[in-house]
Specification:
mainly alpha; 202 residues; two-stranded antiparallel ribbon; 2 strands
């Protein structure tokens, strides 16, 4: 009974942590990624991959972006807006690399990415903790004073070993799946950041 309770508690803790991760990290990262991709797509709609050709439109899009407005305002200060001496066409120069402003640290400044990416280790640690709890439950009930009690104790020990095995298996499996999933999310976000920076750099 104790072994099952430990397994249920362990599984509940993992479920709660995953829910918090989805709410506090994944959905926020997804929102920022969508903002990056939206701005990129809007620039593509203008048939331009050069900020000089659509500076006013790009500025308006960024100023409407809740996720990127503040970073754009800082980056905009590094831009030099002038006119061509030949055709009076507006030209925009960037004096610094866009990735000095548009990077994962700045974009995700309100998300503890470094904290959440360590959840894989937390899940593994919980699995190890469950292992020791399962073993302690089994060992603490061993009674070798009588043969009948010894047989019963062996059964309890085996149940404890089962709990230890299941908690370890769940913990390691969830850790592996989480690490893979989180890496895909971060890689996708970084790809969107790179694409936007390549467009903004003149």
């Amino acid at each position: 009974a104790y072994g099952q309770e430990i397994t249920y508690i362990f599984a509940t803790i993992i479920f709660v942590v995953i829910v918090f991760y989805i709410k506090c990290c994944y959905l926020q990262l997804k929102k920022k990624n969508n903002a990056l991709q939206y701005i990129r797509s809007e620039m593509e709609k203008s048939n331009s991959h050069n900020i000089s050709d659509c500076y006013e439109e790009v500025n308006e899009i960024f100023m409407k972006s809740e996720e990127l407005k503040e970073i754009w305002i800082l980056f905009k200060k590094s831009l030099v807006v002038t006119r061509s001496i030949y055709d009076n066409k507006q030209i925009v120069y960037s004096t610094v690399d866009a990735d000095q402003y548009f990077n994962i640290n700045n974009i995700c400044s309100n998300i503890s990415v470094s904290f959440w990416q360590n959840l894989g280790g937390v899940f593994t640690g919980l699995g190890i903790l469950g292992t020791f709890l399962g073993l302690s439950v089994g060992v603490s009930n061993i009674d070798i004073s009588e043969t009948a009690l010894m047989q019963e104790s062996i059964g309890v020990l085996l149940k404890g070993l089962g709990t230890a095995f299941y908690t370890s298996l769940i913990g390691i499996s969830v850790a592996l799946l989480f690490n893979f999933f989180h890496k895909v999310v971060i890689d996708d976000l970084e790809k969107s950041i790179i694409n936007l920076c390549n467009t903004l750099e003149i």
